[in-house]
Amino acid sequence: MELQKTFIFFSLLTILVLSACRKPVPEGQLITANGFVFDSLKNKKLANVTVYLYGAHSTFYGVYYDDGPFDSAKSDNNGNFSIKYNAEGKSVDYALAVGNVVYGGFTSQNNFVVDIKHPFYPFKYSHQLNNVELRARELNYARINLKVLSNPYDTLYLDVSTTYGELFLRHILVDNSLDTSFLTRYLPGEINFFEYKILSSRVVDSATMYIRRMRDTLTSTMVDTAIISKSINSTYDIPLEHY
Q: Whose CA, among 50, 129, 186, 226, lies 20 to 30 Å from 122?
């Protein structure tokens, strides 16, 4: 039994060492990929999505696809894309993604976020990928109808987010009273949170930082434009809690 455990241990150690010693793709090697961007919830291809090419580095603990992005391409009107890139000689592998693979998959794209179930597509040490189905999620609109009769803090924040953090939008509303209507985005088919916050230094005491915060929830609707109406008598009425 002890001999078997020792064998398994050294086998795993060998695999880790070999993984950590993987050589970079040679400089100048052509890396190519083609395929399409697909929203599995809406069951359609997505146009005008920026696709990024990331590099990977190898450590004793594994392979991490967080170098770059080195190149990008935008999907056409039919949702198709293609990328050609000459290897820089430092990456052991490559991957495709529509968002940043380091910081929670956030995209800088107005209309799309990552599919949290399929955040990136690795090359798996190939130099060529054909007919790749790269996943993304298309955002819908939400119209916010907001009335605040009294806002002694002057500045009110409205943050829109989702459970897993693939969507985060912040709206800053400044006035001592508000009666406004504006468009924001939400992720259809998921739970979306609309948080009204006061972050003023005036809610910080000498010992502990506080925040005034209240939350509305938009359940997994698919409507093109969701309507959210909110009336607040005074921002003093927003519950005070620890930050």
A: 186
User: How many whole angstroms separate alpha carbon 197 and alpha carbon 153?
Assistant: 11
Helix, strand or coil, per DSSP, at residue 14: helix
Pair 125, 55: CB distance under 8 Å: no
Q: What's the domain count of the chain?
A: 2
Tokens of 167: 């969507």
pLDDT score of 91: 96
Domain boundary among 138, 168, 186: 138
Of 114, 138, 162, the residue at which a domain comes to its end is 138
Statement to judge: residues 9 and 107 lie in one domain: yes
Q: Which residues pair with 196 in a beta bridge?
A: 158, 214
CATH number of the domain bearing residue 182: 2.60.40
Reading the block at residue 77, the tokens are 């009107």
- How distant, in Å, are the alpha carbons of 11, 31, 195 from that of 180? 64, 50, 16
Phi, psi of 42 (to 5 degrees): -85, -10
pTM: 0.85
CATH code (residue 91): 2.60.40.10
Q: 48: pLDDT confidence band, cut at 50, 70 and 90?
A: very high
